[in-house]
Every structure is written in C-alpha cells, then in structure tokens.
Amino acid sequence: MDAEWIAFSAGLKPAIRRTVDPAELPRVEAQLRSGGAVVLRARETARLGAREQAVLYVARSAEHAEALREAEEGVLPGRGSAADAPERHRAIGRLLGFPSCCVEAFLVRLHRGVDRLEADGPGGLAEDYVAARCAWVPAADARVNPLLMPVRAQLISFYPCRYDCAEAVGLAEAVRALIAARQPKTAASLMGLLSRPVAVAPDGARSLLELDDARAEVLRAAAPRRSDGASDPRDAALAERLVGARVGADGEVTAATLTAAPKVWCVDFGGVSLQARFS
Ligand SMILES: [Zn+2]
Predict the structure, then answer these.
(1) Quick check: helix, strand or coil at residue 65?
(2) In sequence order, what E strands does 126-275 have?
(3) Centroid of ligand 1 to alpha carbon of 14 (angstroms)
C-alpha cells in the first residue's frame, strides 16, 4: 500500500518526491509513469549516510516536476547547501503541498544544524530524533506519525512542526479517509500501527512500544518491520534494552540499560483513544 501514490493520484497531493536506490531506478520510474505521472530525475544523486540515492520528482505536469528539480538543485541531501537554501526549501515545501508552519519549523532546525537540539549543544544526533524532540506533545496524533516512514507506514511525508499540528493533521486525515473509503482493512491496520507509542534513540534507532495502563512503563518493545518481515538490526537491539524502562510525563525514557545522555525519547501516538475514532 502506497499512501503517497494514492493521495497523489486522487489529487490530494500536488507532487511526490522519492529517493530510490539507483539499481531500482528503471523499475520505479516505469511504474510511476505507467500510473500517468510525469517523472523527472535529479541531475545529481543525494547522499543519505553512506548511500547514494537517486531523487525522483513526480508531478502531473512537466513544469511542476521541473520546478521541484530546480528548487532542490544545490540543497540535495549530502551535496552541500546553496546560499539561498531557505528559499529553496520553502519552494520545495510549497510544490509538494507541505504546511508552511512545518516547513518553517524544519528551517529553524536546518539553521541550527539538523543534528542538534540546541545551537550551542552537542551535534551528531539523528535528524529524526531531533525532529521528534522538537515536535513532541503529550497527546500526539497518530495520523501525523512520521517515525515509521522507514517501513513505509505513513500518511504524510514531511516532519510535522508539532505532533498535533492542525494543518498536518488535516492533510493526513484527508489521506486516511481516502484509503479508508477504498481499502477499509488496510486503513485500519495502518492506523493500528501508527497509533503505537514509539521510542526514538539519539542515533535514530526506533522501537514500537506497549505501555502499561498508566502509560509509564514499557511492557513490550519490538522493532518496526518492513512488509517483507525484515527489521533494522539497530532497531532490534534498541527494543531489547527497553523492556521495563520508565517513560516520564515529558517523554523521557529511563532504564539502567540506556545511556544517561542524550536520552531515548518516547512519543505516545496511542495516548488518546484513537482506535475508536478510526474504526
Ligand atoms: Zn505544522
């Protein structure tokens, strides 16, 4: 199930940006084009960690896809940053239909360094971890959970400024309702997954949690699984250390098995009674 593609083809999203393993490129491009989309390739690859990734811009018109490609030239991940990076990121966000509040929150982190929580604090943190700490609210809305994107479980494809951002929730809800109307079982199982509490470690490892009734102790923890059943070994190692850990009211996770600082953090996407709302 590809929520982004479903949303794009139904007109809920103006365009899609995809990072693709270069070996997979011909297959993915052909698939997207057969669905009727215009697909353009970035002129350079992006570098995500040690991986070279091709970047694809998928739109309904060549002009829109070209505008996206031009906007990201000079700010491709791992390829240096153009002097007008904020303007370029704003244009990318606008062309992809992201809420401006969420784009501006991203630009604040970009200015500070996406790998640090404070301007004068230590760097080297995973971007997902920093984004999660910045967006954290006690009652996080499962529909804007961005932490399971690595296993393709998502309704949105950007970091929300807050886990209860009204604009982000509005976009996500439109996508959820569309999937629910077409594939009710798929929508229900996706929401079941997105509604689980998630722990994120400073290195970006993450784990799905089951909490006790007080939402304060970890009863079970498991690595998120891709559709082929595989999981990231780092996520599995984190899950093993989390059983019995305490979760503070502010999301801080403490256990003897975890490093003292920076802390593992928990986002409770299941704290509000969501199941009833989505079933
Ligand atoms: Zn927002």
Answers:
(1) helix
(2) 198-200, 206-211, 218-222, 246-247, 252-254, 264-267
(3) 18
Token code pair at residue 132: 């999660």
- SS3 per residue for 234-267: HHHHHHHHHCCCEECCCCEEECCCCCCCCCEEEE
**Residue 15: which of 62, 54, 52, 48 has the closest Cα?**
62
Spatial separation of the C-alpha atoms in residues 173 and 143, rounded to whole Å:
7
Q: Taking the domains of the chain in order of start, what are their residue ranges?
A: 1-97
Closest CA to 131 of 90, 157, 163: 163
**How many other C-beta atoms can be found within 10 angstroms of the C-beta atom of residue 16?**
23
CA 231 / ligand 1 centre spacing (Å): 30
Confirm if 97 and 171 have CB atoms less than 8 A apart.
yes
Q: How far is the CA of 168 from the centre of ligand 1 (A)?
A: 6
Q: How far is the CA of 167 from the centre of ligand 1 (A)?
A: 6
Q: How far is the CA of 33 from the centre of ligand 1 (A)?
A: 31
pLDDT per residue as tens digits for the range 77-125: 888 788 999 999 999 999 999 999 999 999 999 999 999 999 999 999 9
Per residue in 160-215, pLDDT (tens digit) is 999 999 999 999 999 999 999 999 999 999 999 999 999 999 999 999 999 999 99
Q: Is the pTM higher than 0.90?
A: yes
The CA 97 to ligand 1 mean position distance, Å, reads 12
**Tokens, residue 87:** 């303007």
Ligand 1 mean position, distance from CA 98 (Å) = 8
CA of 248 to the centre of ligand 1 (A): 25
DSSP helix/strand/coil, 200: strand
